[in-house]
Amino acid sequence: MIEGALWRKWVFYNIPLILFVFVLLFPFYWMIITTFRPDGELYRPWNAANYQPFWTNNPTLDHILYLFEETSFARWMLNTMFIAIVSTIISLFCGVLAGYALARLNFPFAGGLGTAIFVTYLVPQTLLFIPLAEIIRNFRLGDTPWALILTYPTFLIPFCTWLMMGYFKAIPKELEECARIDGASRWKAMVYIILPVAVPGILSAGIFAFTLSWNEFIYALVFLSSPDQKTVPVGVTSELIRGDVFFWGPLMAGALLGSIPVAIVYSFFVEHYVSGITGSVKG
Amino acid sequence: MAMVSIRNVNKVYDGNVHAVKNVDLEVRDKEFMVFVGPSGCGKTTTLRMVAGLEAITSGDILIGDTVVNELPPMDRDIAMVFQNYALYPHMSVFNNMAFGLKMRKFEKSEIDKRVRDAAAILGIETLLDRKPRQLSGGQRQRVALGRAIVRHPQVFLFDEPLSNLDAKLRVQMRVELKKLHERLGTTAIYVTHDQIEAMTLGDRVVVMKDGVVQQVGEPLELYNTPANRFVAGFIGSPAMNFAEVTLSAANGTLWAVAPGFRIGLPAALAERAAGLAGEPATLGIRPEDLHIAGAGDPPELCLEVEVEVVEQLGSEIVLDTRAADTAFVASVEPTLRVRMHDRLRLAMNPNRLHLFDAKTEAAV
Amino acid sequence: MAVTAVSDATTRPVPRLRRLEDERWLALTLLAPTAVLLGLFIAYPFVEGVLLSLTNTRVGVEGGFVGLKNFHKIWDDSIFRTSVWNTFWYTGVTTVFKLALGLWLAILLNRHFRGKALVRAFILLPFIIPTVLSTFAWKWMFDPTFSVLNWTLFQLGIISQRINWLGDPDLAMASIIIVNIWRGVPFFAISLLAGLQTISPELQEAAAIDGARPWQRFWHVTWPLLLPVTMVVVLFSVIQTFADFQLVYVMTGGGPANATHLFATYAYQIGIGTGLLSEGAAISLAMFPFLFLIVVVQLLYIRRVETR
Q1: DSSP secondary structure string for all residues of B14-70
Q2: A-B Cβ pairs (cutoff 8 Å, strict)
């Protein structure tokens, strides 16, 4: 690197970076502080004399308790967890197999199929949610977790396939050729040699798929109706707002707790997640 | 152990790239056969067809008495060593070597015995618990070899196995491969682009170019009597000198004439080339068959050259010289005192002259 | 045939029937689960959606074929026109800012400093935390009476009275745009950082030795090499933003007075909110030609960038 004076480093690098980090993280701080702030402080106008934005001296667990006692929040968490895990497993299964086929096998229409999957990668959920709601109803899946478990793979599979394709292509072909000469069938060469080698890629795709499922909103909003079936994002939205009244304390508590599973998974696999992002933008 | 027969085999990719054309040869039992040629000559494709990794467009490949055209690689009873070794990165050295035996459902005790035997032969007993990434290039190479030999296959296939090693290690492994083949006696097909490997390792060598077999023969046969200009230029280092000449008969001698020199062909060669008098041809002479002309050299085998570059190698001197339009590389005594731009008189070894048809490039 | 040339001793084993050794069968098997799921829940609903948009179906009322009536109707609908305009404005403005800020952040991160891994992990949080949940935090921050944003601006002396962020159409749009940028910048930054890291520092040094100033080095060396990654990142981001739903749904619900609707939120309001399924389907399908055009144009451009 070409280095300059210390003050330049601060003006051009450190200070902007600190500002970026501050702005990007402040909403989370606000979420946390609101969660533990008693209602009396929460609804104090900002031009009041004793308005104290960044700290509270009377932390409370009331909002969190409200969440667990007055709403089905625990249930929503379990629903979301279940749906996210199962749809991630389904998508990984499909995506790994399809990615392998597209990366490694010669067959008619391989190119066309690859493009087709890439195009579905670009189909947003909001394009199809209305007809899909009808189909879900016709299949009698409405208001069950399966409505989401079966539809989430539609946006997860293309992503997993695309990511795994890139990953498989980076594994030397000779590995499986050698395995096949060593006496493995194509299928065994894939299962015993290529898949173990691709574990980091599979993890990346899995983490990504998990966070995407946890984040999904419109399908969950449209396909589920009874409070006990809801996922965290939908439950928080529909049960903690009554008409025009926002229960900000529980809302922020719900947002905070609802984010924690994703944040934990993320924190364990940051590197895989980042390589998932970078893998997905490499053609 | 078995012989491998390649009968009139063709490979056409996507209906238009003809990668291998009518290859027809037999690799004898216990033979070490080397396929050599420049990249894209079809040697690797041929090997991969023997392995079953590429489908055969037409023709038959037999291992022993069995036509293997339709057999998947796992049923061909072969072992292959790849250029990048293709060691399974998630398995220990032991498991890498045991994988093929496990796939074939060998007893655990038998697997253990075979792996340890192979490891002993290759001197890698202490590495069995390591992962491939903890090994040096030479060690990886040995593991790849070990993985092939534990299987006791009918045929070994080698796809440029030494080209990822540094020069010193390559020479060492070449010797070991030779010893290993001596000891095991398994039929082997070895693909390389390196003519030195071909010459040193092969019982016989197949030279290929553009999908066509140019010549099959023992190393010295290729060196001494190359079938055509391509083989002549490919085998031997530094490469053979070629001069574009016109043949003309005068005074009972057949002369090879070019601007700057003319060489009187020795009787045996002249006899074979008699029909070509008046035609253009290519004269070939190896650098080691050129020497500084002395009193005993007949004048019709001598030519005047100017030295352009002097490469002192210690054991010899390689001179890049020029006679008018034609460049001659000569390999001469290391004691010679010679400088750039010196003019020299070189003489050719009469028994070592080669002549090639200008159009067909075949040896005369 | 070659068979006649083969001596009697040779055997020509018929390979055991193993379909999966044949690449085509194996490929078919491996692709089948994906094809079934995508066919059932993407291709089929797409066709169904097109058919639906040509009827007058409502919730609970099976409708008949009405041709392009729904499309005529939304064409004349001023709210629909507003949402088309909003969608383009929203997508355009946020993309420019996300790209500029993301690139800046990527450059800031593309150095060695203590705690770099930690900073990188933390700045991705806006991207991974569920959008709905983090958007609620913003909505709460934008609260005109109780929250921190107005307080800060007041303390800094920028405003003298409260601003009703989400109550005014223009300010509401601006607020949504800010939140979208906030959420998108990390994705841009991390992707572009990955792109930057593939550019060999020797190129920078070579350019510096050739006498290029920092700005010239960026413009003539870094930017052209970064362009392929940039294009793909922009493509993803544009499509996601164009079809966005959750952010607007939470922040304004399309209000005030339907001023901040996008395609998706308006389709939801008509199709699910009021139960005019066919009209809602028509509105969300109206996104399709635009999306298609965006994808085609960008893919062509990416191809051009990559092949040059």
Answers
A1: TTTEEEEEEEEEEEPTT-EEEEE-STTSSHHHHHHHHHTSS--SEEEEEETTEE-TT
A2: 63
pLDDT of residue B124: 93
User: Is C45's CB within 8 Å of A135's CB?
Assistant: yes
Tell me: pLDDT of A1 over 60.
Answer: no
CATH of the domain at B75: 3.40.50.300
* Range in C84-88, C136-140, C194-198 the model is least confident about: C194-198
Question: Are B124 and B28 found together in one domain?
Answer: yes
**Count of the separate structural domains present in chain C:** 1
Nearest-CA distance from A212 to chain C in Å? 8
Question: Which one of B198, B228, B258 terminates a domain?
Answer: B228
CATH topology of domain A63-281: MetI-like fold (1.10.3720)
Contact flag A252-C140 (C-beta cutoff 8 Å): yes
Question: Where are the domain boundaries for CATH 1.10.3720.10 in chain A?
Answer: 63-281
- Which 3 state secondary structure label does DSSP give B131? coil
With cut-offs at 50, 70 and 90, classify the pLDDT of residue C7.
Answer: very low
CA distance B231 to B223: 8
User: Residue B333 belongs to what domain range?
Assistant: 241-357
pTM, two decimal places: 0.87
* Angstroms from A211 CA to nearest CA on chain C: 7
Tokens of A181: 């000469």
Residue C134 has pLDDT above 80, yes or no: yes
Cβ separation A177–B82 shorter than 8 A: yes
* Structural domain count of chain B: 2
Average pLDDT over residues C272-283: 91
Residue B277's CATH number: 2.40.50.140
> So what's the pLDDT on residue C205?
85
Domain assignment present for B115:
yes
CA A73 to CA A90: how far, in whole Å?
26
Contact state of C285 with A127 under an 8 Å Cβ cutoff:
yes
Q: Give B177's pLDDT tier (boundaries 50, 70, 90).
A: very high
CA distance linking residue B305 with residue B321, whole number of Å: 6
Best mutation site among B24, B26, B61, B75 for testing chain C: the one with the most C CBs within 10 Å?
B75
**Between β-strands B32-36 and B187-192, what pairing exists: parallel, antiparallel or unpaired?**
parallel
Can you give the pLDDT at residue C295? 83
What are the residues facing A28 on neighbouring strands?
none
Q: Which value does ipTM take for this structure?
A: 0.90
**Closest-CA residue of chain C to A232:** C133
User: What distance in Å separates residue A117's CA from the closest CA in chain C?
Assistant: 9
Instruction: Give the pLDDT score at C37.
Output: 93
Interstrand relation of B17-27 and B4-13 (parallel, antiparallel or unpaired): antiparallel
Q: What's the pLDDT score for residue C15?
A: 59
Distance from the Cα of B111 to chain C's closest Cα (Å) equals 26
Q: In what order do the strands lie in the sheet with B155-159?
A: B78-81, B155-159, B187-192, B32-36, B204-209, B212-217
Look at chain C and count its residues.
308
- Contact residues on chain A for C109, CB-CB shorter than 8 A: 17
Quick: pLDDT tens for B33-86: 999 999 989 999 999 999 999 999 999 999 999 999 989 999 999 999 999 999
Q: Given this model, what pLDDT does residue C6 score?
A: 43
Question: Is the CB of C182 less than 8 angstroms away from the CB of A23?
Answer: yes
